[in-house]
Amino acid sequence: MANLDIATIRADVEPFQSELTDEFYRNYAGLKEGMSTAPIYSKYAHLFSEDAISAIKASLDAKEGPEDIRWLKYLRTFSTMGHMDNSVKELTDEVVTFEARAEVEFEGKSIPYRFVPIEIRNEPEHDRRTKLFEAKLVQTEPMNEMLLDRMSTLHDLSGMLGFKNYRELCSTLKGVDYKALEEQMEELLRRTEKLYVESMDELLMKRTGLPLTEAWTYDIPFAFKGEEFDRYFEKGELVGSLSSTLRNIGLEPDKYDNIHIDMEERPRKAPRAFCSPVKVPDDIRLVIMPVGGWKDFETFFHEGGHAWHFGNTDGRLPAEYRYLGDNSVTESFAFLFAYLTSNKLWLQEALGMKQADEYIRFALINKLMFLRRYAAKLIYELKMHSSRINPEFGDVYRVCLQRALKFRHTGKHYLEDVDDGFYCAEYLRAWILEGQLREAVTEEFGEDWFRNKKAGARLKELWSYGQKFKADELVKTVGFVDLDPEPMVRDIERGLTG
Ligand SMILES: [Zn+2]
Fold first, then answer.
1. Rounded to the nearest whole angstrom, what is the distance from the C-alpha of residue 117 to the centroid of ligand 1?
2. Residue 245, phi then psi, degrees to nearest 5
3. What pLDDT does 3 receive?
4. What are the CA-CA distances from residue 74 to residues 17, 171, 174, 248 (Å)?
């Protein structure tokens, strides 16, 4: 198919996204058994063909004005990344199938591979966690061979598409300067090092009896269970607390016919909340199976942030701005909502938690640990994606992660712990943007901005753009020159030292 025209490609972005998102929704909501995304990819294969990539590239080179260049760039990323996904889809399926079927032998019984992390998180004894972890690693070995094959293919494809390496492909397509972000993250690691070591060591000693330098990755989820806080986060209050929060900020949830909260209990429904923007902004599904506890609230509010972002996006925008663009933007609104669940005023008012200091401290140490973990992931991935993947990167992974986190890691997770397309950078940029957004609304509307209807109106305006603007552009509309980790870091420092 020669001369595939841009109008045809553009017209199919929305139906493709809708069909794909609906397939994910029905699977995770427990309405359908088994996932079949392959027929959808086949139906829309022309979107990810070499013809599509060159047609978009040709249009971009012809430079048809700044607005055209903006959506053309998002279209190019979508088409090229889709082409890469499509080329490794058999290998991806092979990994997913292996992971779904693998069993781990432990104390004479077999545990499904995917359930082992849950067992580890619930196991109070370090020695038994060690054994569970070691038993799981037996299955990680064959999976690494498949993952190595898959990553090698992605690295080779980057060269075939005319890029120096995978890192340059992602950086060019997404328009993100990873080197600058890496420098900011090195600075963040230096600046928060002492605070992290002291607070994390104290937390681990108290909750696992292990000092930071003797703990292992598998001790961390247990240390952050925080069951004693769960009684404040009641299952029955979950949906209602989001509704009243929205009402207080002037976003009448009952008026949003386009956002459907699906809280029906179904046997195969995923226990973790998620948001499916099936049609933006007309059909947004927020799915939850409430279990209660702090983690459930945090996740539900995170997904609620996505739902209200997509649900308030201007439907007149081209599909590229409603479905594609910079995911750091939607993630930052998700974080803004999620962090309400560790906001002192919110905890007092919404949940009646009078003594919130201990929980807030716990939540901030957890956040700092995740930030440092993602900073380390970025540093590692920049090395790995600048080169061609080989098993020696196991050691590079271990050294990078251990340097930032101080607790022990295995090198064997050097592929399993990597998401495609530098998604770690998207989270880091979202955390940074959230810190700046929160500082901007706090400055303009006060500490209790989430009870101020004017703040709600301001958010609605920011949400209306969908993902038209990248995180570094959106931050300018709230009064900053560029993405800057300062407000986020200061907030953590204040919370942990004050
Ligand atoms: Zn999210």
1. 21
2. -60, -45
3. 64
4. 14, 13, 8, 35
Say how many Å lie between the CA of residue 83 and the centre of ligand 1: 24
Which of 297, 284, 367, 381 lies closest to 330 in space, CA to CA?
A: 284
334 C-alpha to ligand 1 centroid (Å)? 6
Q: Residue 10 is encoded by which pair of tokens?
A: 């553009």
Q: Could you tell me the distance, in angstroms and rounded to a whole number, from the CA of residue 158 to the centre of ligand 1?
A: 27
Question: How does DSSP assign 3-20, residue by residue?
Answer: S--HHHHHHHHHHHHHHH
Q: What tokens does 146 get?
A: 């498949």
Q: Give distance in angstroms: CA of 302 to centre of ligand 1.
A: 6
Centroid of ligand 1 to alpha carbon of 6 (angstroms): 30
CA of 347 to the centre of ligand 1 (A): 22
- For the chain, domains (ranges, CATH) are 178-497 (1.10.1370.30)
Distance 303 CA to ligand 1 centre (A): 6
HSE-CB at 280 with a 13 A cutoff on CA atoms is 31
* 288 Cα: distance to centroid of ligand 1 (angstroms): 14
Q: From ligand 1's centre to the CA of 253, what distance in Å?
A: 20
* pLDDT of the residue at 114: 84
Taking the centre of ligand 1 as the mean of its atom positions, its distance from the CA of residue 143, in whole angstroms, is 27
- The first and second tokens of residue 213, run together, are 């330098």
260: tokens are 């459907």
Measured in angstroms, how far is the CA atom of residue 306 from the centroid of ligand 1?
7
Radius of gyration of the chain (CA): 23
List residues bridging with 276 in a β-sheet: 285
Question: At CA 498, angle to CA 241 and CA 183, rounded to 5?
Answer: 90
How far is 341 from 350, CA to CA, in rounded Å?
9
Residue 66 is predicted with a pLDDT of: 79
**Taking the complete model, does pTM exceed 0.85, yes or no?**
yes
Q: What is the mean pLDDT of each run of 10 residues along the chain (498 residues)?
A: 80 96 91 83 94 94 84 96 92 86 92 90 96 96 96 97 97 97 98 98 98 98 96 95 97 95 87 94 95 95 98 98 98 98 96 94 98 98 97 98 98 97 97 98 97 97 98 97 98 93
Q: Which residues contact 187 (CB under 8 A, 6 or more apart)?
A: 485
Say what the pLDDT of residue 1 is.
44
Report the candidate in 379, 489, 373 with the shortest Cα–Cα distance to residue 434: 489
